[in-house]
């Protein structure tokens, strides 16, 4: 599946995030851990921002000027309703030319939808979009080896990929980043997140 197809799949299931049952605390503590490493509170980017705005709210509360980007047109439409004064981009992160530098970038539960062969390119682009000392947090499938699969757990079929733990770590070392934290935060599930800082 390409990112545009992923976007159309998410267009169909925005109700999952708009439901009162959605846990708006999901990922918040992990983001607070990442934000503790940030030295400058300037611009921030939420990749795969979705429609809840919970990370946008957190970043604003912490003194950042956040922007959001999502491949789902409907997610972006709903996000704009929640945050009228925030810039949101309806873009495919694989092709998008990121319009600036950021002190903090989050890609929570989004990077894993990128085609496996584009994972390194996209993550490299995100690191290059960080200011020196900037921090990136993202979640991924904590597999031992690179791989990909699709499933229909949420309704429409959705694609997932991962470089694997060592693949991600090797990439960030090659990009002169420092690994600040790696955790299987829902163990024994493979949901994993990594915090890296640009040296």
Task: Output the CATH class name.
Answer: Alpha Beta
User: What do we call the CATH homologous superfamily?
Assistant: Vaccinia Virus protein VP39
**Spatial shape:** globular
Radius of gyration: 16 Å
**Portion in helices:** 25-40%
Description:
- The chain is of the alpha/beta class.
- It has one domain: Vaccinia Virus protein VP39 (Rossmann fold, 3-Layer(aba) Sandwich).
- 30% of the residues lie in helices and 29% in strands.
- It has helices at residues 3-11, 15-18, 28-35, 54-61, 73-82, 119-128, 165-174, and strands at 43-47, 65-70, 87-90, 102-107, 130-141, 147-151, 158-162, 177-183, 191-198.
- The strands form 2 sheets. It has a 7-stranded mixed sheet, sandwiched between helices. The chain has a two-stranded antiparallel ribbon with strand order 6-7.
- It is globular.
Name the descriptors:
199 residues; alpha/beta; Rossmann fold; seven-stranded mixed beta sheet; two-stranded antiparallel sheet; 7 helices; 30% helix
Give a topology summary.
Elements: H1 3-11, H2 15-18, H3 28-35, E1 43-47, H4 54-61, E2 65-70, H5 73-82, E3 87-90, E4 102-107, H6 119-128, E5 130-141, E6 147-151, E7 158-162, H7 165-174, E8 177-183, E9 191-198
Parallel strand pairs: 1-2, 1-4, 2-3, 4-5
Antiparallel strand pairs: 5-9, 6-7, 8-9
Short description:
The chain has 199 residues and is of the alpha/beta class. Helices cover 30% and strands 29% of the residues. The strands form two sheets. The chain has a seven-stranded mixed beta sheet with strand order 3-2-1-4-5-9-8, sandwiched between helices. It has a two-stranded antiparallel sheet with strand order 6-7.
